[in-house]
Amino acid sequence: MSSGSAGITARSSAAQKRRSTDARRRRRRAALVLGSVIVVLAAIVVALPLFRSAYEHLTLPLDHEDIIVQQAHEKGLDPALIAAVIYAESKFDPRTSSAGAEGLMQILPATAEFLAHRSGATTFTVADLASPQVNITYGSYYLRYLLGTYRGNEMLALAAYNGGQANVDEWVARARAHGHALTVAEIPFPETRAYVEKVLHAQRQYRSTYPSQLGYH
Question: Got the DSSP string for 23-49?
Fold first, then answer.
């Protein structure tokens, strides 16, 4: 073999080794990338329920579920209805409204005094409404009272919770005079109409989102 042929053979062998080395490096990089992708996907799968839970709590918060379930059981209410009213009233952020309504279920002091008298409470003070236990207890009692007044009609009870019982009685009488029952669409107050729709929608969401927390199973 001539020296020229030997040189060509050596260069060809070196090139093959480089190609083989490059191929191994590419396979190792691909394996590393694939491994990283698998790790990331596994982390996402593990974290997804946590992200979903955080998102749900942010968009549809729920706190004091033990009190909600307790009051629902004691007063024969749907726990999701109580949660939905709290969501519509305060989004579980207790505060005093510009109208003076207090706490999670935004109860007016005059309404609370009425409820305290009706329920036989003797030591109630308006400051008690800052307590989640007291506020949810009184709000649930009021819901039970309104549902009893309107024969279990949640739409009318919610309209009265927001717009006042006297107004709802007038709307019901007006609809009855025209030969039909009051519908949500016929509620004259836009705020009350939107409130009723919001609570009924949130009630369905709470049932499906928090079935175990609200005692459905």
Answer: HHHHHHHHHHHHHHHHHHHHHHHHHHH
